[in-house]
Amino acid sequence: MALSGAKEDAREVRIYEYLDELSADLADYISELSEASVKERGVFAIALSGGSLISLMRKLCEAPYSKTVDWAKWYIFWVDERVVGKNHVDSNYKLAKDGFLSKVPIVPSHVHSINDTVSAEKAAEDYEFVIRQLVRTRVISVSDISDCPKFDLILLGMGPDGHIASLFPDHYILDEKAEWVTFITDSPEPPPERITFTLPVINSASNVVVVVTGSSKAEAAHLAIDDVGPECPLSSPAKMIQPTKGKLVWYLDKAAASKLEGTKYSE
Ligand SMILES: O=C1O[C@H](COP(=O)(O)O)[C@@H](O)[C@H](O)[C@H]1O
Predict the structure, then answer these.
(1) What per-residue confidence (pLDDT) applies to 10?
(2) What are its E.C. numbers (predicted)?
């Protein structure tokens, strides 16, 4: 059984005892968002992260979603990517391809991976160019309060240090406001070279979902979700996810939610 609660600023936090249950509800929610977006705009522009998220999306590849989702209308992007070859074990593209994209009928030309043959700086520049073209043709919508792209859904994971995408605590790119896609060459976690959406782009999305599991992330989830004030020891990138107009939903398992204030899990 899941426990669901709306925090004071309309974020929603959904907590699950079992990963299978989390995965099933996540698939259901993504398919609902896809249906709504296809109905409204004719397309669904979704940006994926890497890490544990992909295996938690597994139920989307199964019935009924394998048949009911309008896969032909999906356009796939990456919120962040490691600057390695597409067949490299660290590639977020490879992870998504093996665990998700190869199992559903998404149109290959709708899959927008990064240019893996150039430097991190150039890959970020190229990726932003691709996104700008697709904003122009309205495959990706545009925010009505900034010039940022407005993805229909951005899916994030969170590391035990509170990092999301490749935005790490106390890193100067957290302050990046001008670029849509930026790069780092000094990631605290390997591989060092990565490209990432910036916070303004993440916060312009229509929907943001953060999926977090495991007790190693409980403290970071508490710092990101609860009102901790000056207790917060580091800048928490996850706490900076504050969609301007969009909806934010956290999907947590019981272990990741174990340090949340005022959230008592009940059967
Ligand atoms: O390095 C990364 O880490 C985060 C979190 O990964 P997880 O395995 O702890 O869920 C991931 O969301 C991001 O895309 C990835 O590049």
Answers:
(1) 66
(2) 3.1.1.31
